[in-house]
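Q: Convert this sequence to structure tokens.
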Amino acid sequence: MASRESAVTPMPSIPRTGRSSLLANTAVLSATTLGVSAANYGLNVALARLLPPAEFGDANLAINLVLAAAVVAATLQLVSSKMIATHPESAAAVTRTLALIAGSIGLVVLLAFTAGAWVLADVLRTSTPWMFVVLGLGLPIYFMQAVYRGVLQGDLRISRLALSYGVEAAVRVVGAIALVWAGFGVVGACVAITLSFVASAAVVWRRRGADGNTQGRVPWLAVRAVALGATILLVGQVLINNGDLVLSKVFFDPVVAGLYASAALVGRAVFFLSWSVVQAVFPVAARASLPAVERRRAVLLAVGMVAVIGGVALVTVFFWSDTVSNVMFGSTYAGAASLLFPYVLATTLFALANLLGALGVATGRLAVPIVVLAGGALQTILLISLARTPEMMVWLQVIAMSVTALGAALFWTMSEKRLDKAL
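A:
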């Protein structure tokens, strides 16, 4: 990582934050997101073919454990990105401190996984406890690399950030297929996941000597404020993104739940593409040195880009839902076609609210991520109380996400007006 606070090293110039730069960064991240998603989907298909059902269930559990850990990693990345963008004079000290915190969290998880591996294997009925040990070994590296990904994001080094995602996916997919093919089963898949963290870390980490003055002051009040906002936003994300899938397994029989899950997979594609826009605009909005006019222009551009992504998806599933369902999942999933339009609509509304929530974290407007969390609570309450069919479930999400998007837009607009009055 380049020196940011050495007394004899000049401060680096602030990267361009204009329209062309934001579009280019988003294009890079979007292309990477598509590639990574396709690779992960292919890995799931390959593991289903290579492993017996019981071991495939174990492998799927391992992937879900990583997704749960990703919430912690995403929080660390957002905090790191925000602090790098807003406190460049303390960048090296903040990075070192956050990396130590991330490593400590990872070590606690490692000890828990190692000490409790046999208990977890018994409770979760997995074929081997060693999968938890192997995954635990990789999590300290995973959490620490999230901090360094945040550094790249905060510095707007988007190409290298995208490269880290690509390398992680490539090593995971190739390694898992090769090791499972060689007969190592679910443990081999877990080894590949851990190796993917190591490979990605090699992309994002820098020599310690290049980190500059690590003795600088860490602005703890700012760190805590960003961590709180990021945690609120990401908990809301988990509720909205995953709650309906869990409830569908509770409410519906396995076949109907499977059809619902296929519709959800299409909706998730919209969210992940929109998240690439969030990653590109987050450090831009966070920069205190950026004029208010430029920041608003970047925000409006990002909102427009998410709206276009959602709009294209909506038009596609409105006119060609049967084709989309058949091409992606096959004729046995034809029953999911009617769910695609409302699900994509709900996801588009959520993507807009989530964008404003992330920008609220970037600019210190805690009310906006709180709205996203409240939207997750509202959706959960509606689904538990009223959802009795897949169609009801998706339209209730449309209602909840309409309220959430309007609320996020309202609080963002109100904060903009207060800022104008303050100026």
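The chain has two domains: 19-218, 233-418.
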